[in-house]
Structure formats: structure tokens, C-alpha cells
Amino acid sequence: MSKLLHVSASPRGEESISSAIAEVFVEEYRRTHPGDVVDRFDLWDGSLPEFGPDAARAKMTVFGGGTPEGAQKAAWDAAIATFERFDAYDRYVFSVPMWNASVPYKLKQLIDVISQPARIFDVHPETGYRALLTDKRAAVVYTSAVWGPGLGSEFGTNFQSTFFGDWLRWAGITDVQEVRHHPTLTGDYDEARKQADESARHIARTF
Question: What is the mean pLDDT of each run of 10 residues along the chain (207 residues)?
Fold first, then answer.
């Protein structure tokens, strides 16, 4: 039995295109994987902890071989609990709208909270980083309204999938499939949405 987590980075609720396409994926996944567990992590639901001064100090304490105490320990425990919540799944579908050429800040917050030593990575002074999440799969729904493949820089730049795809690889998640919805300002929205939904269903069937 596998466990799938839908990580939603959009705050737009039922108006979110990325979340709606991801839910098409989830619906097809449930239909074709009836014995699997499927859950949702809304990054805007208030459960994602901050990673501020105490957490940053705790991380450096851990890097130095120490044990966080007091406020540092509380911040570190919250970060590790979030990592464990994430790590409990072996499959993910991420809904990621483009914000200002990149990803919503809540997704970056999740990354900063869970990207911790001995959890997502190890590092060696001679060989560099070693990814630890090597037994997982991901599907990512990327959406944008203005930017689109093949358009000039006057329509924006894609730091959305380049950034998030790089983090997935760095963490060790290399089995990644993408669903894209970039109708642009002059494109056929309905046709683009139809293609994105079908792509989501196709990937979900054998995910």
C-alpha cells in the first residue's frame, strides 16, 4: 500500500486552477489505486511553522553536533514534526501556481522548514550533499496565466519549475512527472485546461 499526499501551495481555495487540476489527479488516483491512502496538506491552513531566529540557531546547533534547548528546541521540534508529516508519504502531487516568476512563499517556507540535516540531506566536506529522500515519487502541477513556454521575457521568466524541480532533485526525488497549464493571455484556456486534466489523469493511472 502506498500513501499519496497532495501538497497545495495555492491560497485560492476552490478558485485555484493548480489545485483543481491536482484534484483531478487525486480523483483518478483514488479510482485506480483503491487500497492506497490519500491525504491533503494545505500549506495555508496555519499548521506550517515559521522557521525564524530560534529555528535557524537550532539548525546551526545541530550542525555543530549539539542539542537545541529551550526556545531553540521548541522551534526545532516543530520543524522535525513537519518533516515527519511530509516523510510519512512515498508519493506526492504538488499544486504549484506561478507567483512573480517563482513559487508561492508558503511552498518556499515548507522547503525551508523540512530541509534539515540527517532528514532530507547529509553533507560531506569533500563530496558535498547527499540526498536522503530517494524512495519517493512526485507529480507536479505547474500553472501560470501570463508566462508560457516560447514567450519572450516581456511575459516573465520561469523560476517556478526550475527552482522547485531543482529542490526535488536535491532532496533525492528524481522520479518526477509534470502536468502543465500555461494558457497565456491569448491562448485557448478551455483547450489548455482539457489537456492538463487529461495529462493529470494519464499520469495518475500508473503513478
Answer: 97 96 98 98 97 96 94 98 98 98 98 97 95 97 96 96 98 98 95 98 98
Q: Which of 120, 123, 117, 118 is nearest to 133 (CA)?
A: 120
Whether residue 17 is contained in a domain is answered as yes
Q: Which residues of 112-142 are buried (b: 16+ CB within 10 A; e: fewer)?
A: bbbbbeebbbeeeeeeeeeebbeebbbbbbb
Domain assignment present for 134: yes
Range of the domain at 91: 3-47+87-205
The answer for residues whose C-beta is within 8 angstroms of residue 137's C-beta and 6 or more apart is 90, 91, 92, 173, 175, 176, 207
Helix, strand or coil, per DSSP, at residue 31: helix
